[in-house]
Amino acid sequence: MNAVCPKCGSHNVQTYAMAHKSGVGTSVSDTAGVGVTLGGDVGYGVARTQSVHVSQIAKETAPPSAGCSVTGCFVMLPATIGTLVGILAFIEWLFVIFDKNPDFPPIQGFSPRDSLLIGTLSTTVISVGCFAVAFALSKAFTPSLKKAAEEHKREVDDWANSWICLSCDHRWRKG
After folding, report:
1. Phi/psi-derived region of residue 135, left when phi > 0, alpha when psi is between -120 and 50, beta in every other case
2. Do residues 172 and 163 lie in contact, with contact meaning Cβ atoms separated by under 8 Å?
3. Over the stretch 6-47, which tens digit does the pLDDT of each residue have?
4. Diameter of the chain measured on Cα atoms
5. What does pTM read for this prediction?
6. Contact 66, 152 (CB under 8 A)
7. Residue 3 is inside which H or E element, if any?
8. DSSP assignment, residue 78?
9. Cys bridge to 115: 30, 49, 106, 139, which one at CB 3.0-4.6 A?
């Protein structure tokens, strides 16, 4: 690669990806020890430590992170609740279909079978409602999620085309 710093003319330049990778390292250290107690017992121990070292330039040239989408959490929460309640409703429907009455107290004024049916219909409605809310939220937040994804893609493209001069610390974007 024949890149040159536009500020100082140095050839000591790297892409952000190269600078970041060269500034991150790991080290592993193994330790072993033997000891003897006053009573004559022998003990032996081993340990392994591992560490990651990140230079300042590696921190500064790190790739952009996508981050966590709070809006995605708002969509997933009702979908998760809907799934869990839907599983419960499915199990309850099996009790209804196979005419089994689980051992739980009936709703006051209703027979055990009617209580089971009411509970099953309630959990089914709650499950469907949760999925409806999740669907509505996904439709409402889709434009902002797409915008965030496009912005992240632009940031990654900028990072992939960014350079740093290791002589004068000048930074620029190529392309």
Report:
1. alpha
2. yes
3. 999 999 999 999 999 999 998 999 999 998 888 888 989 999
4. 89
5. 0.52
6. yes
7. none
8. H
9. 106
